[in-house]
Design a protein that fits this description.
There is one protein chain. Helices cover 29% and strands 24% of the residues. The chain is an alpha/beta fold and 365 residues long. The radius of gyration is 20 Å and the shape is globular. Its cofactor is Zn(2+). Keywords: Metal-binding, Oxidoreductase, Zinc. Residues 8-343 form the Enoyl reductase (ER) domain.
Amino acid sequence: MKGFVFHGPGQSSWDTVPDPGIKDATDVIVRVDAVTICGTDLHILKGDVPEVRPGTILGHEAVGEVVEAGSDVRTVRPGDRVLVSCITACGRCAYCRKAMYGQCRDGGGWILGHLIDGTQAEYVRVPHADLSVHPLPSTLDAKDAVLLADIFPTGYEVGVLNGQVRPGDTVAVVGAGPVGLAAIATARLFSPERVVAVDLAPARLDAAKRFGADAVVDARETPEQLIADLTDGMGADVVIEAVGVPETFELCTRMVRPGGHVANVGVHGKPATLHLEDLWIKNITITTGLVDTHSTPTLLRMAAAGRLPTSQLVTHTFPLDRMEEAYDVFAKAADTGALKVVLGGTRHEEVAVRAAEEKDVRSYA
């Protein structure tokens, strides 16, 4: 089969690699239908995630069809169309029992495209399948569903839920990339008074408006002052960091009000300064986190009902074998306007369309 292989910082290629096989009784093999590229993949290529060994197939998000299942798999079987979650969960360890799947102690957590071969290939082995793949409604298009493997759960759980967004809050989202946009969209579920998006790219600020931001501001134009003006000098109740560089984290700590929350979502490859000389007295809560994906079933139901703006995030599509071109487009988002690129995603489209048409006919019967 073919897969996108990491060969070291700055080096990757679409290579011929061995087909995966069942190793444990809880594994499934999924034939990949659609994948997407994450900002974390770009961090890996830059060398920011040293745990990824050369020779690893990248990717941790996919939609596909189960073609083989281990003898202990109970929730799916060959032929099932599934979402492959970015997080693998054993379901038995102390963390999984608390739904903290990202911290799984029995061969789970973020392992796909990190510690084992990932999804950016024609086939992928998924361990602990019962909690790590999700059956998909036939009406949900692959290009929409694949965004629920990581982007929407991450923005929602690590940003909105960790930040404890509440009705009437002022929420600032620093970074209007895919995760930031997902945070904006899901923050709206909690009826904040306003959501403010901060970014450098005009195209992403425009996208933030479409996803529900009430105000946008260029990061170079003192966003702290805008937040102060909007809140009578108090600051934002919740600030979500969705970039992953020292400057944006430090900006977030300057924008939050006393008693507020800073929810860090971004993947950081360099140290950031924590100005405790200013923050110690302000009752600030700072959270970090790897997504647990405990919200994925809920988000899948919402997406199937048309309650999430998933399709608006997809700006570019490619065949699977144009992975290198897709990476180039995604990495140059400031020039290309890319939000999310999706590769593949055509195998089940006709089936989904037919199912949707049948549903419409039944609704008027």
